[in-house]
Amino acid sequence: MKLFFDERQTAHAPLRELHNGDWVPFAENVERPRSIVAALDDWQPVRDFGMAPLLAVHDADYLGFLERAHRDWIAAGRSGDAIGYTFPIRRRRPLGFGRIDAELGAYSYDAGTPIAEGTWLSAYWSAQGALTGLDHLATSGEAHAFVLCRPPGHHAGRDYMGGYCYLNNAAIAARAAQARGLGPVAILDIDYHHGNGTQDIFYADGDVFFASIHADPRTDYPFYWGHADERGEGAGEGTTLNLPLPRGTDGAAYRPALGTALTAIADWGTKLLIVSFGADTHRSDPISSFALEREDYGELAQAIGGLGVPVLIVMEGGYAVGDLGANVAAFLSGF
Predict the structure, then answer these.
(1) Tag placement on the chain: N or C end, fewer CB within 10 Å?
(2) Residue 97 domain-assigned (yes or no)
(3) 18 exposure class (CB count in 10 Å sphere: 0-12, 13-18, 19+)
(4) Cβ neighbours of 154 (radius 10 Å)
(5) Considering the domain boundaries, does residue 98 fall inside one?
(6) Domain residues for 171?
(7) Using an 8 Å Cβ cutoff, are 35 and 11 in contact?
(8) Radius of gyration in angstroms for the set of CA atoms belonging to the chain, rounded to a whole number
(9) DSSP calls for 184-210
């Protein structure tokens, strides 16, 4: 299996985030990718596919905002990382703003996703990594590829950031796969947290199937999305499958949910599967509450690989840095 990563993805280095009413060190830190890189060998370079694939998923004004947000923050006389503090919850509509504070709120939904000096650079190359992995699958004939996407992407919507995510790497790869005629495309999200941004992007799209296994949003972030009754709408009705699980879920309780998701993906007629993989389901993760063991990851991967279709794996969460590299390696070994 080919592995893809670009060192520019470590330029994103916010110092802190607002969590549970207090300032805490930024959890999605540069030690995460470094631990994964150290645990695996033979990393391949990332190619630049330009802005067009990003524009196929994200709003142009939003992309422009991400590229200049930190410069505007500094130009406004601020220091450190750009963080919003006011968010529109009613009549959200396109407006012109003359202040960076307003733009931060308009293009985000939480106060835990700062924009640092290197955020755009890292997010851009994270998305390009997903596109490189897809291109490898499309041209090599190989069955599996892993992209160390950092920052992660599954909480980012068409025109908003959140949950440490700025560009939706899985969605960008899915749209690019469709453009190359590689569909039907399905996305399987097995991060601890629901991939609300991915769901939102494809919620009314009848051409991409989205399945997510995650912590019950009644108790866990992102709270407002990922409930079992969310099944898509319009042309996309029935193409969203949410399988929320309670805190404390271990491997034995997780596997039946995975079986349900894989059956639905197979029945969809999937020809290409994109897996949003989060290792924050591990029992040691500091901000999550599942209880999977390292050996569970290889078994989950074997089940996914058993679908017999090409699989593009993009990295999402996982914050137990001491275990992260070994857990990712265990997952990839199952393929």
Answers:
(1) N
(2) no
(3) middle
(4) 30
(5) no
(6) 2-13+23-48+118-333
(7) no
(8) 18
(9) SEEEEEESSS--HHHHHHHTT-TTEEE
- 248: confidence class by pLDDT, cuts 50, 70, 90: very high
Q: What share of the chain is helix, strand, coil (3-state, %, to 5)?
A: 40, 15, 45
Show which residues are catalytic: 155
| Residue 327 counted as domain residue | yes
Contacts for 267 with CB less than 8 Å, ≥ 6 apart: none
Residue (of 239, 213, 240, 242) closest to 227 by Cα position: 242
- 267, two tokens: 């029945």
SS3 of residue 241 by DSSP: strand
Count of domains in the chain? 1
Which helix (H) or strand (E) segment holds residue 4: the answer is: strand 2-4
The CATH number covering residue 39 comes to: 3.40.800.20
Strands 43-44 and 2-4, by their bridges, are parallel
Q: Does residue 28 form part of some domain?
A: yes
Is pLDDT above 80 for 224?
A: yes
- 245: β partners: 215
Distance CA 1, CA 19 (A): 37
Q: Are 164 and 151 in contact (CB under 8 A)?
A: yes
Judged on CB neighbours under 10 Å (0-12, 13-18, 19+), 298 is middle
pLDDT-derived band at 218, boundaries 50, 70, 90: very high
Q: Could you say which DSSP state residue 291 is in? A: -
Name 144's Cβ contacts closer than 8 Å, sequence gap at least 6. 1, 137, 305, 310, 311, 312, 313, 335
| Peptide bond preceding 151 in cis form (omega within 30 of 0) | yes
Residue bearing tokens 């099944």? 231
**pLDDT (tens digit, 9 = 90+) per residue, 175-192?**
999 999 998 999 999 999
Going from the C-alpha of 64 to that of each of 87, 131, 204, 303, the distances in angstroms are 19, 20, 25, 40
Task: Say how many residues make up the chain.
Answer: 335
- CA dihedral 226→335→209→54, nearest 10 degrees, is 90
Q: Which residues contact 27 (CB under 8 A, 6 or more apart)?
A: 17, 19, 164, 286, 287, 319
Mean pLDDT, rounded, for 20-47: 96
